[in-house]
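Subject: design request, 187 residues
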């Protein structure tokens, strides 16, 4: 059973990571960064909620620090937390993660994502980062001088690495949750 779960997680990670390799962040209709997942599982709302709680403890350690609000009756958990990231511009990501458990189904949304640099500067993430990728792509294609073209390409690569690392961190979080939600026993 454990091999099946690990294979499932690997498949999810490969699928999620390949989605974000273009250097762009997923945006909602208000041009704000958002990651979502919906899963149908043959489990009661209470079991899904308990699995979500166990995942929070396993992933974040201190349940009380991570959970901003919980409503067992409605099946909703809202987390405000941080995750480390290895990108040229950011050391951590701060975000809101909402898990909504229903009978045989759960929805998860990650939004309000902010990048935190080593100097503790907080940057809201969203449309601006995608626009910068597009601008840098155009600049690197139109620059005629060797040195300026090299600098433009380096700036483009750094921006893409930042966004790809953000995507990888958030999709890994979603994949980890999915694995825990499908679990039948102790995690």
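Subject: RE: design request

Done. Sequence follows.
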């Amino acid at each position: 059973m454990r091999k099946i779960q690990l294979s499932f997680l690997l498949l999810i990670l490969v699928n999620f990571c390949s989605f974000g390799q273009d250097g762009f962040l997923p945006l909602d209709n208000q041009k704000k960064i958002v990651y979502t997942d919906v899963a149908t599982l043959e489990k009661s709302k209470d079991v899904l909620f308990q699995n979500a709680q166990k995942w929070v403890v396993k992933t974040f350690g201190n349940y009380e620090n991570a959970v901003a609000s919980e409503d067992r009756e409605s099946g909703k958990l809202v987390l405000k937390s941080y995750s480390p990231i290895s990108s040229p511009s950011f050391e951590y990501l701060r975000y809101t993660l909402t898990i909504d458990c229903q009978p045989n189904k759960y929805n998860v949304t990650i939004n309000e994502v902010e990048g935190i640099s080593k100097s503790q500067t907080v940057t809201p993430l969203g449309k601006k980062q995608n626009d910068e990728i597009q601008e840098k792509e155009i600049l690197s294609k139109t620059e005629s001088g060797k040195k300026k073209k090299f600098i433009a390409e380096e700036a483009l690569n750094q921006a893409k690495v930042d966004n790809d690392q953000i995507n990888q961190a958030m999709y890994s979080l979603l994949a980890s949750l999915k694995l825990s939600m499908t679990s039948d026993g102790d995690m």
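Residues 5-20 have pLDDT under 50 and may be disordered.
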